[in-house]
Amino acid sequence: MSQDIAVQVTDLSKNYGPVQALRGVDLSIAAGEYFVLLGPSGGGKTTLLRLLGGFIRPSAGRILLHGIDVSEQPPNHRPTSMVFQSFALFPHMNVAQNIGYGLRLRKLPKVEIDERVAAMLDLVGLGDLADRMPHALSGGQQQRVQLGRSLVLETDILLLDEPLAALDAKLRKDMCLELKHLQEQVGITFVHVTHNQEEAMTVADNMAIIADGELVETGTARDLYENPRRRFTADFIGETNIFDGTVTGVNNGEVAVDLGFAALTVDDNGQCPNVGTEVSVSIRSELVQILRSGIAVAADQQTLTANYGEAVYLGLATSHVAALPNGQAVVARHVSTGLALDVIAPGSSVELAWPRSMMRLHLS
Amino acid sequence: MGDDYSSVWSYRLKWLYTLLVVFTLMLPVFYVIYVSFNQNGFGAAEYVFTFEWYGEIFSDLLLLGALGNTFILAGITLAVAVPMGLIAAKFYKATEAKLLTVSLLLSPLFVPADILGSALLVFFKNLNIACATIGEWLGVSWFDTWFELGYFSALVGLIIYTLPYIFVVILITMGRYNEQQTEAARSCGATAWQAFVQVEFPQIRAGVFSACAFAVILTFNEYTRTSLLKGGYDTITSVLISQMLNEGMSEQSYAMSSLISFIAIALIGSIILYTLVQSERLEREARAKAEPVMSG
Lengths: 364, 296
Known about the structure:
The structure holds two protein chains of two kinds.
Chain A: E1 5-16, E2 19-30, E3 34-38, H1 45-53, E4 60-65, E5 68-69, E6 80-83, H2 95-105, H3 110-123, H4 139-151, E7 157-161, H5 169-186, E8 189-194, H6 197-203, E9 206-211, E10 214-219, H7 221-226, H8 231-236, E11 240-251, E12 254-258, E13 263-267, E14 278-284, E15 289-292, E16 301-313, E17 317-323, E18 329-335, E19 349-355, E20 360-362
Parallel strand pairs in A: 3-8, 3-9, 6-7, 7-8
Antiparallel strand pairs in A: 1-2, 1-4, 4-5, 9-10, 11-12, 11-14, 12-13, 14-20, 15-19, 16-17, 16-19, 17-18
Helix pairs in contact in A: 2-3, 2-4, 3-4
Chain B: H1 8-36, H2 52-57, H3 61-94, H4 98-106, H5 113-138, H6 151-175, H7 180-187, H8 192-221, H9 224-229, H10 236-246, H11 251-290
């Protein structure tokens, strides 16, 4: 087993009675990587994290941390420590005692504990709050204490279970970047669970999408956003238009897909569907342009005729909604520039256009 | 208090009413205390103030022996039933069969004292007969007396009686404890036992101590089961009641009752006072600290 792999999970499953919370997950996380488990609530990502931490026992499969099988080990025998969503500080200990708790368990000399706690307090920016009790801290400060309590142990892997979910939006953004920088500074492996895409994309070196107890797809944030293999990923990340259709021809790396009211030609992206297969084609909403009928478009553009619906102003962006002949809504999203634009009357016929090369084919 | 529009008199009346209720409830105790200082004892026409009966408590061997027995029973009941209640409460939080667990644990509350007492009496008598018979067959006698009425049988009765109260009292404080803290401690490297002792117990300590106080108070209160399972003149309560039923209470008994009441009221009063002062102080500190805290 390579020493560079921090987490190696094979065929991992967890059942709660008849409910399968996690099914046959295979995953490996490189040492020193900031890895994010992203997915909808109830999808199994927290179950996976708790399995890594040793808080629940796998129903099947193995967990190797730095090459050592820990599947049957309790949390205190694993090279992991965990940051919880909230309420996990010890309310009867002050900030310094909370951070020093794990060091006291290791029976280190008091001088060393004090030194390491002081250094950790500085690292997480709580130097002047050492004597505060947890109830006298704000949410952000409490999470910093939790981080400090885990990081001070210098374990190889830090598990973070929705660590920012209880914070307000502004603070979450700041803390996100801070987490990323902290990870770069300490250099250990972070495994971070979240349902928040922006949070995931901010911090992740690599991420995994987990839904319905299955590992859907792994990759970098850019990979998953720009080049999703699975329909679920395309749908879950960002705002995407997805068209379902049938393969009518495969030719030279290009796949022809019939939507019923129109036909698309899309790059096969290394996949080889058979003629007659049900597939999906996706295009990001920010790549879709809305043009008045009759305007000429470049040859590399895919066009579809639609009926304009309405514009929804969202501050940074404006979403334009148009309906295809089969009734499906297509969203085109553009940065609001503040300039007065042509106003299109609802119900008028428009052309939707986007670069052919940016369409993605999904077989599942 | 009340809102700005409510009359200050309605507030005062509520207080007055509360004090009146407490006073009415405590009146019999006050009367016992009053009698205990009377040279001529209960029901005498003439009242002569004296400390004499208090002095005689310590020469009344029956009462002193009963007091000792009561303390021994209370101490052992506490030592056995409180850990049992704690484990039961832990189990209750972990199990999915909560209704079954709570029904089983609280069921002794729904059996009248005399029925439970006499049922246990019959049970122990039969165990004695069984032990004696088996001993005879085997030709040995060393386990003949295992289940004779005495401390052991009285303790079984008391533990069955106090366990539901202890369970509920501990569960109330344990209900507020967040299990995630145990997980946090485990992930810091604590064993399950260290996590319990260092993280959970300090937070449920108040409940455990209340449960201990409950065990002692209930043991002092208990008459029916103890007198059936041990005898009528062995604990303070059984002595007092048996005297009452048979020949009327002795003067020293009034003094002893008063003394116990004094101690109990002083003890519980100071616990309540301490708790109030403490929580007020904590709240003040929290407020003082919370103010300068900035978000972030």
